[in-house]
Amino acid sequence: EWVSYIVVESGRYILEGDIVVEAGIASTTIIHRGGQPFSGHPVQFQGGFSSTPAVLHSLVTHNNNDFMASMITNVGTSGFSVAMEAAGSGKNSASEDAGWIAFSPKTGSTSSTSFVIGIGNDGTNDGVTNSPHVIDLTGNFNGAPDVVVSVYNPRGWDGSWARGAGIWTMNKQTVYAEEDQVSDNERGHLDELFAWAAFLAETDLVATA
Fold first, then answer.
1. Fewest C-beta in 10 Å: which of 6, 40, 197, 205?
2. Are 70 and 87 spatial neighbours (Cβ–Cβ below 8 Å)?
3. In this structure, are residues 119 and 162 in contact, taking their beta carbons and an 8 Å threshold?
4. Per-domain residue ranges for the chain?
5. In CATH, what number does 106-199 get?
6. Measured between alpha carbons, how far is 115 from 141 in angstroms, rounded to an integer?
């Protein structure tokens, strides 16, 4: 498998292309399990966003030495809530740290890179046995970019996380809202919101402020 990643030092910055970005690490002891409503620890941005940002997230610790994912809910212009996502796995953890990056949604280019940052859903179910969500990158890249995608303000109480769905080109990235198969074998999932950020491969993001 291929893994794309973005590294941002904790803090708030304005990047080339007038991209507003804020990043940090949040600790949480709250676990979402399949079938339960969502909750989380509140995280406040240092500064507000003019519109709802695209927030990418992933656990950066592995304290339980077992499966666990990250989850964010209640995303708004001033902050969000963070928790662990166990889905139907039955796994536990006393606490984990989640790294997060919030970008202002924007498409454009600079002298050194092109970028597509956004949030969205397509109105159709996104599970592995459904049709994947398609992120349109047409006209922005000359080769397959680095793309990072997260489930965003989840709707499906079974729990899910984003994973590539097989197409990764300069024109599109497909993605599933993947579920576990611990308590049952079905992998269908509701239509979810996704957040994504795509940059030219090996881009250095330069802060202007």
1. 6
2. no
3. no
4. 11-103, 106-199
5. 2.60.40
6. 8
Could you tell me which CATH class the domain 11-103 is placed in?
A: mainly beta
Topology alike, domains 11-103 and 106-199: yes
Nearest Cα neighbor of 147 from 125, 124, 127, 117 is 117
- Rounded to whole angstroms, the Cα distance separating 55 from 84 reads 15
- Structure-block tokens of residue 40: 């989380």
pLDDT for 183 equals 76
State pLDDT tens for residues 16-37: 999 999 999 999 999 999 999 9
Q: What is the DSSP letter of 193?
A: E
DSSP string of 120-185, one letter each residue:
E--SS--STTSPPEEEE-TTS-SSPPEEEEEEES---TT--EEEEEEEESSSEEEEEEE---SS-S
| Per-residue confidence (pLDDT) for residue 180, from 0 to 100 | 86
Structure-block tokens of residue 121: 């859903």
pLDDT value of residue 96: 98
Q: State the Cα–Cα distance between residues 16 and 72, nearest whole angstrom.
A: 27
For residue 184, pLDDT over 80 is answered with: no
Instruction: Give whole-number Cα distances, 32 to 87, 148, 165, 190, in Å.
Output: 7, 22, 24, 17
Cα–Cα distance measured from residue 27 to residue 60, given in angstroms and rounded to the nearest whole number: 10
Angle at 178 between CA 102 and CA 81, to 5 degrees: 35
CA distance 22 to 102: 5
pLDDT for position 25: 98
